Every structure is written in C-alpha cells, then in structure tokens.
Amino acid sequence: MLIKRREFLKISSLAAASFMMPNFLKAMTFDDALVPNQKILIVLQFTGGNDGLNTIIPTRNDIYFRERNKIAIRNALSLTDEAGINPALSYFKELYDNGELSVMSNVGYPDPDKSHFRSMDIWQSASKSSEYLETGWLGRYLDEECYRCEHPTQALEVDDMLSLALKGENNKAFAFKDPIRLYQTSQEKYFKSLYDHHHDDETVSYLYQTLGSTINNAGYIFEESKARKTEAAYPNSQLGKDFKTVASLIKSDINTRVYYLSVGSFDTHVNQNERQQKLFTDIDEAVKSFVADMKSNGLFEDILLMTFSEFGRRVAQNASNGTDHGTANQMFFISGGLKRKGLLNTLPDLQHLNEGDLIYSEDFRKVYATILKNWLQADSSKVLGWKNGVYDFV
C-alpha cells in the first residue's frame, strides 16, 4: 500500500498527540500500576517570558519604581518588609502564609539567550547556552529510570504536542490535550482502516506503530481519566480544565510521576499589566482549585508544583507600557511537603546590571538537580551531568 502525502499528514497528526514508546500505554493496564505514596512532580511552564519583577515585587527599591514609573505594581500583597507579590496571585500569598510556597529568585544560566525558542530549548534540555541537545531533562530522567520500571508510565503532558523537556533518547512521555478527544480521534474509521491495511515501510513504520498503539490504548486512558473523576469545581479556563485532567489522573491507577502543563503567552511587550493580570488570575484560580482538591484527598504532601519561564524581562519598561526580553527570573514551588518555605534567597540586584539586564545568581540546573535527587529520588548527575550540589527546599 503506497502512502500518499495527505495520509502521511493525517497519521502524523494523531501520532504527534501520542508520541511515545510503543509499549507505553500497555503498561497502564496492569492492576497494580499505582505505587502508594509516590512523589509526583507537576511542571507549569510560563510560556513567553514572564516578567519576574512584576511578579515578586521589590516594594522598597527606588530603582524599580524609577525604571517602571508607569507599570510598577504599587499595591503588592506583602510577603516581607522588602518584597510583595502581584495582587492577582492572592492565593499564592495564602500559600506563602501557610508555609506551602517557596520562591527562588534570580534564576538563570551563563551567557543567557533572549530568543524565546533558543532559551526555551536551554531550559527544557538543561543544556549550556553553547550546546544543543536533542533530549530533555525529564526525558533523560525517563531514560535512566524506566529501564528498571515494571510499569514505565512515568510522564504525561497535557498538550497536543510533546515538549523537548520530556523527550529522551529511548523513552518519551505521552502528550494529549483531552482524553476524550484522543479517544474519539482514535476511533475514527479512517485511522482503523488505514492501520489494518498498511504494509511495513521503513519511512512510516514508527508512525504506524504509534498509530496502532494509540488506537488500541486510547480507550484505556479515557477510562482511567474518568474512573475516579474529580468532583471538585474547577474554573472554566483552559488551565483549569488541564489541572482537572491531572487531578483525575492522579486519583486513578496510572503510575505517573511527572505531569507537564503550560500557560501563556507572557510576551508582554505592550500593555503588560493588563495581560499579566489576566494570566495570573487564571493561574491563581486553577491552582487554588487543584490544591484544595489534592488536600481533600490527602495527596498534597506528595505533590510538588514547580513553575518556570524561559527568561525574565528587562528592568526598565519600554515605550509601550511593557517590557522587553531579559534574563533571570524566579521559580515557584508549591507543596505540602516543603522543607524550606518562603523566599529562598535575596531579591534581584537592580543596582548592578549587565546592559540593563539582571545578572543571575542561581543556576536553573541546580534547581533541576534538587528536584531529581530529593523529590523524584533519581541520580541527578546521570540525568544532568550536574555535580555542583543541590538546594534543600525539598
């Protein structure tokens, strides 16, 4: 059977939503797939370069207010005598007060790149700015861990396409936006007929293999997603729906250690405050519902939610009441199992800049090493090649 370009694209579209090792989903069918009390990591990517200075605000820094005379946040919710949080993140403030949120400021890497695509690749692959890797830090975690996993169902991304972060050399996560939509797509007669009549062909064999696995197993993901479907109320935003999907899966028997979500775009060159407020409100409401859901089910101690963005913004505002691409930024950590709470380090130094940009003080790869070693109990040196120590907040 000759495959036409149109058919190839149709297969690719379904395969992209289920980019995986062929036996990935079959492992989910084992009755004992769930490991009790396992630690779960949820990564929330702030796509587009969130402005960290208007997220955690240096409330007593004259340079901040001078350089941002029109967009400075003047009604920040107080965290300390020197720092506040954007008022649109009121639930994050509550988490902070409860000892369930930590903030790492001024996180970055040497020789920062201000391209969205390149800097995101660096963060997702945990590479140096001068090297190009085809695998992600969580994908390499799968490579190291899944060779000895009885049920290698370790990572899921709630999106239509799989991010570089979750692509390993031998193992990859599974990406889908909606279990129902994935199931409905897999049941289309065209895909079933195409798979039933295909011939082996080196150029498309992997696509056919993935197609067959998806058809055979999408129903299982769909059933698992509703087996212990959460009854908690979530906001109707896309992020709210994504967190609701994750909550249902966490309660099911799927043995998943890592979930990956994204929200954006934070590329706020124009009218930054309005855009950032809308995004923060969506994030705040979704996280509030998710944390309440996990707490009510006794799961919050074993869940760590981590946020990052590919870069921050420049210290000075631009002429369009926005900010342009910058460098260092902060990361949030939310969990009932934090060892250190609150602000983990000092606020960014606004007096000593590199041509108007922040100079990072914390390397993001040390944060990843901390998560891998202390939370996921993995060998961070093998995954990252990082041997410069870890933090102690988890």
Automatic annotation (TrEMBL):
Keywords tagged on the record: Signal
Superkingdom per UniProt: Bacteria
Signal peptide span: 1-27
Coiled coil: none
Keyword set includes Signal: yes
PANTHER family: BLL7424 PROTEIN, DUF1501 DOMAIN-CONTAINING PROTEIN
Name this protein carries in UniProt: Twin-arginine translocation pathway signal
InterPro entries (alphabetical): DUF1501
Keyword Signal: yes
Organism: Chryseobacterium hagamense
